[in-house]
């Protein structure tokens, strides 16, 4: 809410979520709300006001119902972009939520089998081949088809939505030193290298598989535009060390625009005034930037 108070986005903004927390946060930030029942009533929102819809929590937890309503509104054309806050996955799973997070849930809603989790906005850009899974399951999930899909999806997003005509993509190996010629693992040679070579033949600037430390050093030095990491912590540890609070979680491969913050719920900061709104500000700005570019 503080992000909306510090820099008002263009166009009408509708908040979909629980009643009391939204009302209290809006009041604390000096923002005015207009309660509406659906996005069909968006014209009732006056200038300098935010719309507020409270979804029904009868069939599923309100945070889940809110995400579903917002995504479906984007699919139908009632809304133009979706910016989400963090969710507490453990609490929602305990209430029957069957997904590992926003990304796969949005993929199901949008009919997208393979959404891609990416992070942009700071000095580093990262896309993940695998996301929320035990580390022991990662090697079997690394296949040429998935690696190639993530690289191509990320490269196309940089070109089409961020305006990079010739994006330079670094692809991490799964194993230390990208397998060291098979000495430290074979996945780099059998799965990752063929995917990289296939995309190079299409004309993309793909560098890899290379060791993760090399990929991130080159990206930090400006020699790469995005790093494709094989698993969650390989990509997000360096990203958050360098860019925490500036990065934006951007879901690629969906038919809608969806951005989010790069952090968790941090319930202990609620109401203290100490929470940093920078990532949410960046998420809103990125959604607007993509929307504007697509409109052109």
Task: Write up what this structure looks like.
The protein is α/β, with parallel strands linked by helices. It is 41% helix and 16% strand. Strands 4-11-10-5-6-9-7-8 form an eight-stranded mixed beta sheet. The two termini are 29 Å apart. The model has no long low-confidence stretch (mean pLDDT 90).
Structural class: alpha/beta
- Domain module count: 2
Number of strands: 11
| Major sheet | 8 strands, mixed
Radius of gyration: 20 Å
Q: Could you say which overall geometry the principal axes of the C-alpha atoms support?
A: elongated
How do the strands of the widest beta sheet line up side by side? Answer: 4-11-10-5-6-9-7-8
Number of helices, counting only DSSP H or I runs of 4 residues or more: 11
CATH homology group of the largest domain: Isopropylmalate Dehydrogenase
Order of helices and strands: HEHEEHEHHEEHHEHEHEHEEH
Helix content: 40-55%
Looking at the overall shape, the CATH architecture of the largest domain is 3-Layer(aba) Sandwich
Mean pLDDT: 90
What is the strand and helix layout of this fold?
Layout lengths: L1 H5 L7 E3 L2 H10 L3 E4 L13 E5 L8 H15 L5 E3 L4 H6 L7 H9 L5 E5 L5 E3 L9 H4 L2 H19 L5 E5 L14 H15 L3 E6 L1 H9 L5 E4 L2 H12 L4 E5 L5 E3 L17 H18 L1
Parallel strand pairs: 1-3, 2-3, 4-11, 6-9, 7-8, 7-9
Antiparallel strand pairs: 5-6, 5-10, 10-11
Helix pairs in contact: 3-5, 7-8
């Amino acid at each position: 809410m503080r992000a909306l108070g510090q820099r008002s986005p263009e166009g009408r903004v509708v908040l979909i979520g629980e009643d009391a927390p939204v009302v209290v946060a809006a009041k604390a930030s000096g923002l005015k709300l207009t309660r509406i029942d659906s996005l069909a009533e968006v014209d009732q929102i006056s200038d300098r006001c935010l719309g507020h819809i409270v979804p029904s929590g009868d069939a599923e937890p309100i945070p889940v119902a809110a995400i579903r309503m917002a995504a479906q509104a984007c699919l139908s054309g009632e809304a133009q972009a979706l910016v989400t806050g963090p969710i507490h996955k453990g609490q929602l799973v305990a209430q029957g939520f069957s997904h590992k997070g926003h990304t796969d849930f949005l993929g199901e809603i949008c009919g997208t089998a393979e959404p891609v989790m990416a992070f942009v906005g700071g000095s580093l850009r990262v896309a993940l081949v695998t996301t929320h899974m035990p580390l022991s399951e990662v090697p079997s999930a690394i296949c040429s088809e998935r690696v190639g899909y993530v690289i191509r999806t990320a490269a196309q997003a940089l070109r089409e939505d961020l305006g990079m005509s010739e994006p330079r993509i670094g692809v991490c190996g799964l194993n230390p030193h990208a397998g060291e010629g098979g000495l430290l693992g074979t996945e780099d040679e059998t799965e990752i290298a063929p995917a990289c070579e296939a995309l190079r033949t299409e004309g993309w600037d793909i560098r890899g598989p290379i060791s993760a430390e090399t990929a991130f050093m080159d990206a930090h030095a400006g020699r790469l535009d995005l790093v494709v990491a094989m698993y969650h912590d390989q990509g997000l540890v360096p990203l958050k060390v360098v860019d925490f609070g500036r990065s934006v979680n951007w879901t690629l491969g969906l038919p809608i625009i969806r951005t989010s913050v790069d952090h968790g719920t941090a319930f202990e900061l609620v109401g203290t005034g100490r929470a940093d709104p920078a990532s949410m500000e960046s998420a809103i700005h990125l959604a607007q930037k993509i929307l504007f570019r697509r409109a052109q």
